[in-house]
Amino acid sequence: KRRKRNGKWEAYSKGWVKPRTVGGHGGNVLCLAVGLGDSIYSGSDDCTVSVWRGGNKIRTLKGHTDWVRCLAVGTDGTVYSGSCDKTIRAWSDEDGTHIRTLIGHGGTAFALAVGPNDKLYSGSHDTTIRVWST
Length: 134
What we know:
- The chain is mainly beta.
- Helix content is 0%, strand content 52%.
- β12 and β13 form a beta hairpin.
- The chain is globular.
């Protein structure tokens, strides 16, 4: 359902809770991913990934040199971030450690998805889709 409130349309549904607003990036939030448990990840044009639990920011993942445009989470909790720097980074959900950098795209990584057997799929501005064995 939709209703008009304060001149703007907003969606609502029975059972939805009032949203909680949190801040923590130095730039625009460009992408989100939901992880295991109550983990939420946000990517930004400040080149970082923020990790949230219970509505609180618990860490910042740094390493990209350009905007973070996409995120995905593996079944083992590995967090993947794709960036305008043409790389995909893998991070440990447990402690935020950088695991590895995947290099191969010739353009911005715009899309990430984790498929069966934890294979990582990425789509890029270079018009390719790549499949990575994680």
